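Reviewer 2 asked us to include a model.

Predict the structure of this chain.
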Amino acid sequence: MKVKREYSCGLDAAVDVIGGKWKALILWELHEGKARFAELRRRVPGVSEKMLVQQLREMEADGLVHREVFQEVPPRVEYSLTELGAGLNAALEPLGVWGDENMGGISARRWGEG
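Predicted model (structure tokens):
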């Protein structure tokens, strides 16, 4: 059961929605369009099946991701961004650019690489 809380600012609300390691990466991978579960698992290296299921369920509950089930044999499920999710993804784009520009320095400082 989720505990209702008041957000102190917009950043607090945004970070609450994308909190953790995987949600922003999943959002980023969905920016090109619909993807099936197995595609997302391949495109988000390191995420376990259990964690991907959990994160997608939370993102669906938060209105960021749409899950469409096709009545086929075998069943097919596709995930896509909602308008809300696309807006959040657009807001994350400058953060991704910053990360690309500074990745080498970040690696060097953290792990002596670069």
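Strands lie at 35-36, 65-70, 76-81. The helical segments are 10-18, 23-29, 37-43, 49-61, 83-111. We have added this to the supplementary material.
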